Amino acid sequence: MSTSEFYLAAAESTNPNDTWWFLGFLPIFLLVAFWIAALISIISSGYTLAAKVLFIVATFTLPFLGPLIWFLFVRGKEDKNRRV
């Protein structure tokens, strides 16, 4: 069997779905990364412990909307004038 015949046989035996399986998991990976980024951002924010717990519970309860609400509407709104 020559090299070109070997490559042709290998190409014919490969299922095209085997090479694209990861695209099915890509949204899940992105959601998990988005969720982890929100958790890190919540923990490092300047909110009180009670508020942080509330926001973390919201991200657990609403896996996509919780982090989205955090990043769009809540993050950066804590009292910046408060003296520590």
From TrEMBL:
Leader sequence residues: none
Cardiolipin synthase N-terminal domain mapped to chain residues: 33-73
Membrane-crossing segments per the record: 20-43, 49-73
Record keyword Transmembrane helix present: yes
Coiled coil: none
The entry's keywords: Cell membrane, Membrane, Transmembrane, Transmembrane helix
Membrane topology field: Multi-pass membrane protein
Protein name: PLD nuclease N-terminal domain-containing protein
Native species: Corynebacterium kefirresidentii
Source organism phylogeny: Bacteria, Bacillati, Actinomycetota, Actinomycetes, Mycobacteriales
